[in-house]
What does this fold into?
Amino acid sequence: MNISTGEKSLMIVISSIVLLCIAVVYIKHYFLEQSYENCRYYARGVVETEASCQRENCQPAATESPPEHLDIPADFARNYLADYRRTPATAQRFYRAYLLCMERAENGFL
It folds into this structure.
């Protein structure tokens, strides 16, 4: 069975495109995972800073508005809120900070 030069070239081009697509998907997945991890650290920092501020009796930022209640998905709570389930308000603050961070990450600010 002989394969012509044109068919070989076409197979090389197609396989190169497939490999390039795989690489792009892998890189996007890697950066998305990094964003998730960074946002968990960011949210943890926000919660810990607020707790520290409450202990030291400092004033909240003037631009803060009263937070609305967010429904926290059960899988998110199970996987990421193990340390913050002590109070619903703390879990809400963590989840809100996480969502804000992910929104910024999706818009390219992280």
Q: What stands out?
A: The radius of gyration is 23 Å. The chain has three helices and no strands. The CA atoms of residues 22 and 59 lie 50 Å apart. The helical segments are 5-56, 74-80, 88-106.
